[in-house]
Amino acid sequence: MKSFLRTLTLGAAMALCANIASAAELTFATGWGFDFYKVQIAKFEKATGNKVKLVHLPAGDDAKVSQYRLWLAAGDNSIDVLRMDNIWLPGFANDLVDLTNATKDVISQHVPSIVTALSVDGKLLAMPMEADAPLLYYRKDLLEKYGKVPPKTWDELTAIAREIQDKERAAGNPDMWGYLFQGKGTEELTCNALEWIKSSGGGSIVDPDGTISINNKKAIAAIDRAKGWIDTISPPGALAYDSEAARGVWQVGNGVFLRNWVYIWGLSDAADSPIKGKFSGVPLPADPDAQSAPCLGVKGNAVSKYSEHQKEAIEFVKFLASEEVQKDNVLQNGALPTLPTLFDDKDIVAAQPYMPTMKGVLENGLVRPSAIMKAKYNEASTNFWTVVNDTLAGKGSAADNLERLEVQLTNLKGSGW
How far is CA 334 from CA 117, 265, 266, 385, in A? Predict the structure, then answer.
């Protein structure tokens, strides 16, 4: 708690002391980390005199968003703080407090790409809490066996994956695959495909000014290349892989490379894991004229405009974003911090050796265009991953399918986003 108090201005610290005399009772809606939050809330309550009640959200992202929509559409003042995914924020932009001015004393301490992910139209709508991003995992024992180094480009990955896969199959493992990724028609495929496209110089789905730019030669080439992986270096079943399905194949030892989120590291290195000590991770590849573009997943805590205790709620979300709380979250829950100082923290690095690498990954992170498309993002993303999945499955060419997507997005934009 001392580290949190040191981040406050003198005036804010005095305000906290004053709050003890007139304590507020806050509510915090979250669908995750109840035991973790209980411990942190106790610290906050002891320091401020305020009280915080946890409100449990239903399971599943759709159910959480629906519950938020019910509360906020009704102007419900019984919920003060809401744990938010960055892609949900634009849909609630008119219902959340702009935290820009209230956090100007501390927000610059956070990774800029994270702050961008939690902002809509220049307004900071949630205080950073944690992040997620992918790595390219690789079997270091196999790369060493065949005299290879981790690939830096997608073409290098394709070639190395095929060579090692074929040699391992010839050596007695017919189930070995060169590259595993999440090809199932969900938001994870949106992340994978945007990474391929952005890191190939093909931009994003839309430009920052709202121009629909996805139907371009580099984007087509990136998706065509991925289509070429299916049943050559990637299993046909990859079209139905989510992160856990891909991990399952990888962790039993049947993958040379894997694109997946950071939680995979700890599971892959568990005592009973067949690949314990045999793997490592590097940033995702990129074409020579482009830059690695790992898709960011960001969680933040937002304050409802309908809260009757906005001042206290803002101090609470700042507390949850503090170095002390984030360090606990990293060590206990394996989250990625949003404070650059923590990526080199000796305790964190000892527990999670990949953390220094993740600092650079987050700094180059790709932010999905939800802030541009606002309430239409979910539909636009669904259209996007559908045409990508179709292409991977051989249902039309990348060129034809991206042309179809352009028409769909133009119609969506025409109805307002």
Answer: 20, 10, 8, 28
What is the rounded distance in angstroms from the CA atom of residue 248 to the CA atom of residue 356? 26
Does the pLDDT of residue 155 top 50, yes or no?
A: yes
Which CA distances in Å does 347 have to 40, 210, 329, 330, 351?
19, 43, 13, 10, 6
Contact, 343 vs 357, CB < 8 A? no
Give the pLDDT score at 12.
54
* C-alpha 68 chain-centroid distance: 20
CB count within 10 Å of CB 335 equals 20
Other Cβ atoms less than 10 A from the Cβ of 109: the count is: 17
**pTM of the predicted model, to two decimals?**
0.90
Distance CA(149)–CA(13), nearest Å, equals: 52
Q: CA-to-CA distance for 396 and 179, rounded, in angstroms?
A: 23
Q: Are 300 and 326 in contact (CB under 8 A)?
A: no
